[in-house]
Amino acid sequence: MKTILGKGLCSILLLTLTLASSPLLADEQDASSTSVLFRYKSLEGHLVVQQSIPPAAAARGYEIITNTGRILKTVNASPKGADAVKAAEQMRREAELAEWDANLNRRFSTVKDIESAKQRSLLELRGNLSILRANLSGVVLQLEEQQRRAGTMERSGRPVSDTIQSNIATLEAEVIEVEKQIEQRSAALENASEKFDQDIERFKVINP
């Protein structure tokens, strides 16, 4: 039984490593990332990077950067108060949009290019989901077998062995972990599909 459990755990670990190192997924995720951030100095002189900026910091001046640290815009000191924050948010949105547009034009030449990238990405995500679901089915079967053995022992008046109790606990934890991964990958699949659809619509706007 220990060997069976080891194979189940190894398959999940291997899948996790495969997903984390997948060049296609990493490439598509990098390509679709359009978030931009504020970088400014605190009153103590420390650099702060975050998605929002307080009024006082906006008034002192700041930089708008990508999530990799590339500077998109440098803003000098501006009026204090809510107007400064409003202006900063507007510039952040404009910079984010410009970064998105540049990203799209850099990676794609036509709408068909985006559609092809979408198909590749979704195909890989669906494949990952299929592997996870197969893993889950295997683990559930192992768990049911261990529970059946435990029930047989109890009905015969014998105590359930420590080994079987340990196996049941391990398999139950494994079921929870695989179900969690399936939920995460399902959400990633839905989000990826929506993001590619947004990319297609935006590409049509900037390349009529």
Task: Outline the structure in words.
- The chain folds into two domains: 2-31 and 109-206, Methane Monooxygenase Hydroxylase, Chain G, domain 1 (Up-down Bundle); 35-107, no CATH class.
- The protein is built from six helices and four strands; from the N terminus they run ααββαββααα.
- The chain is α+β, with helices and mostly antiparallel strands and 208 residues long.
- The model is unreliable at 1-21 and 23-33 (pLDDT under 50).
- Strands 2-1-3-4 form a four-stranded antiparallel sheet.
> How many separate domains?
2
Evaluate the radius of gyration: 25 Å
What is the CATH-assigned architecture of the largest domain?
Answer: Up-down Bundle
Helix tally?
6
Low-confidence parts lasting 5 or more residues at pLDDT below 50?
1-21, 23-33
Q: CATH first level of the largest domain: which class?
A: Mainly Alpha
Which structural category do the helix and sheet elements fall into? alpha+beta
Q: What fold name goes in the CATH topology slot of the largest domain?
A: Methane Monooxygenase Hydroxylase, Chain G, domain 1
Query: Averaged pLDDT, please?
Result: 83
* Total count of strands: 4
The 3D shape can be described as: elongated
* Order of the strands making up the biggest sheet: 2-1-3-4
Instruction: List the secondary-structure elements in sequence, H or E.
Output: HHEEHEEHHH
Q: What can be said about the biggest beta sheet?
A: 4 strands, antiparallel
Helical residue percent band: over 70%
Percent range for β-strand residues: 5-15%
